[in-house]
Amino acid sequence: MMTERVLYEDESIVAIDKPYQMAYSGAKSGQAQLDRLLTRLAQRIAPESGKLHVVRTLDKQTTGIVLFAKNLERQAQLRDAYEEGRVEQRYRCLVKGIPDEEKAKISIPLVKLIKGRDMHLEPVKNPRTELNVYNVSTEYHIVNSNSTNCALLGATVSKDISHQIRAHLSYGAGCTLIGDKKYNLKDRNVPPRISPTAMTRLNLKPNQFRHLPMFMHLNQLLIPRGGPGSKYISIRAPVPHAFYYVLNKLRLLKK
């Protein structure tokens, strides 16, 4: 039940912990889809309004905090806060590779390329001729790393676009999220092959790395209570059990 995944609630907002592979919309018939569950969820936790209004969704493969407003005024207020970069979003990402720098800010301008239903980001090649350039930044720090050639990173964004962290870590830090075949620069359309040490610790056979999920989790949001200068609400979501299990097996739990 989604009511058991409610992380935070007050008079105007609700935050839930979205599980892996649950899309907000567009799922096939019979598959879990977040917007199909909203009416029932609203009846249970916001009966006075009877409706929840999505503020910001997550990609299907990303887990963690999804924020809803109980009225249209609060929805508009929070969407403005996101657009103005006043909502701090903190992620945990499991990547192949260890960044050269312990912490850094990646500010590579990105352009969105769309082919059919597929979208991916690439670095801007010529800022003077490219249209729709996204000048966004991602800050990261290494939470833990070891001889598996894997690292647990903390990544923070404020004003952001879809796929930004995945693209920035790949293009700017030389690290690809485990399970992410879209931004694996060494072998497109195949997730990154992890080291033999990591394979052994996870008890995987040679080609089973291809079936690992993507480990990207929105674990904390800092949301303004009102307009600019107001105090912040902090909402946290623990990493999913599968994520924790893999971190434990790789010996990457925080020291």
From TrEMBL:
Keywords: Isomerase. InterPro entries: PsdUridine_synth_cat_dom_sf, PsdUridine_synth_RsuA/RluA, RluA_PseudoU_synthase. This is Pseudouridylate synthase RPUSD4, mitochondrial. Gene3D superfamilies: Pseudouridine synthase. Residues 13-170 form the Pseudouridine synthase RsuA/RluA-like domain. The keyword ATP-binding does not apply. It catalyses: a uridine in tRNA = a pseudouridine in tRNA; a uridine in mRNA = a pseudouridine in mRNA; uridine in 5S rRNA = pseudouridine in 5S rRNA. Transmembrane segments: none annotated. It comes from Steinernema glaseri. The keyword Isomerase applies. Belongs to the pseudouridine synthase RluA family. One of its GO terms (molecular function) is RNA binding. GO terms for biological process: pseudouridine synthesis.
